[in-house]
Amino acid sequence: MRVFRPAFRAARGARRRRPGRIPGPALATLGCLPGLAAVAALVLCAGGVERPAAGRSLAARPAAGHSATRPPIVPRSAWLDEDTRRSQPPPRYDDKVVAVFVHHTDSPNVYDCAETPRIIRYLYTGQTGSRDWDDIGYNFLVDRCGTIYEGRAGGVDRAVTGAHTQGFNHRTAGIAALGTFTAGAEVPKAMTDSIAALAAWKLGLSGTDPRAEVRLVSSNSLSRYPRGTRATLHALAGHRDGFMTSCPGAALSARLPEIRQAAARLQGRH
């Protein structure tokens, strides 16, 4: 059962400073869902997240010679201000990324895309506040207008170890779609196009075909696979493929096959 936590409880005590509230349409939408705001919403989808741990996941050897152009990515500095930022340890890295996990944030779908930086800031506050993580867990976030944002620190072109899919944070990247994409929800084409472009580029850095299956080693028995199990997963997978969750929602999950195909075409594959 999902537990809805009151909004803004993420910032604990006087040692955390809260960012300003979301004005306008985004705030109005948040208020329409009892007990749900961006901070609490992140907990719902990211409940299967673990802190990065030592270890190495194994993947099938990817095909070489295919890559894709890096799409525009808005840097962290666009959403993380000094009032919100908390101290954190240096980023951790893997040798490469051979799979991406797609998530949704379980937050409202109707928002002004100009408010996206504020929404991401609330998500960051929720994860680094009440959940006491060292940074936002997702490597990237994509809004309904198709704008891609850098999430976790460490460099978008590097294999940053995230905290997005419990048991499978190594050699993977987490892409979060801002919204709730359960059955019947509309998934904006601009969003799926950007997810495909981002996955094509990120997987292309290791020569991985987005349509392929890869082998990853579970690092946590709370995932769908006991620790140490070599699991065969899609190179472009949904969160629920690695963890017991409905994330990224039925509507977005249904779009993953076409996103894989689009990403492969962007890599020049047929």
Distance between the termini: 42 Å
- The percentage of residues in β strands lies in 5-15%
Strand arrangement, largest sheet? 3-2-4-1-7
Biggest pleated-sheet summary: 5 strands, mixed
**Sheet/helix structural class:** alpha/beta
Instruction: Please tally the helical runs, counting DSSP H or I stretches of 4 or more residues.
Output: 6
Count the E strands. Answer: 7
Which regions have little confidence, pLDDT < 50, spanning 5+ residues?
1-44, 51-63
Order of helices and strands: HHEHEEEHEEEHH
Mean pLDDT across every amino acid position: 83
Instruction: Report the helical percentage.
Output: 10-25%
The backbone outline, from C-alpha atoms, is globular
Radius of gyration: 17 Å
Describe the 3D structure.
The chain has 270 residues and is of the alpha/beta class. The chain has 6 helices and 7 strands. It has helices at residues 24-31, 38-45, 116-128, 189-204, 239-242, 250-266; strands spanning 99-104, 140-142, 148-150, 172-177, 213-217, 230-234, 236-238. The chain has a 5-stranded mixed sheet. A two-stranded antiparallel sheet has the order 5-6.
Helix and strand layout, with pairings?
Elements lengths: L23 H8 L6 H8 L53 E6 L11 H13 L11 E3 L5 E3 L21 E6 L11 H16 L8 E5 L12 E5 L1 E3 H4 L7 H17 L4
